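#struct-help
A.M.: can someone run this one for me? Single chain, 80 residues.
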Amino acid sequence: MNITRRELINICNRFLDDKISKEEIIHFATSVMFDDEDKYECEDEIVEEILAQWDNVHTQSKINTNSIKLLRNALLKMEL
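D.P.: on it. Structure tokens below:
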């Protein structure tokens, strides 16, 4: 599965709509980052860096509504 910027935007939207939790975002990021079976590939370095931040225990406390809104808006601007 190729993890794209669009997929991250969808994850942000789902979080902002209260359809997934912070813990689910962290679990997803950890699954991708520690994928031993090569099921996942990141579209580019930006996607990989975002997932690494979500997986990092030192930055997980920064996953909140405001930071996810900012991230989603930045990703949307990159799509243009």
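A.M.: thanks! Strands lie at 2-3, 41-42.
D.P.: also worth noting: The first strand starts at residue 2 and ends at 3.
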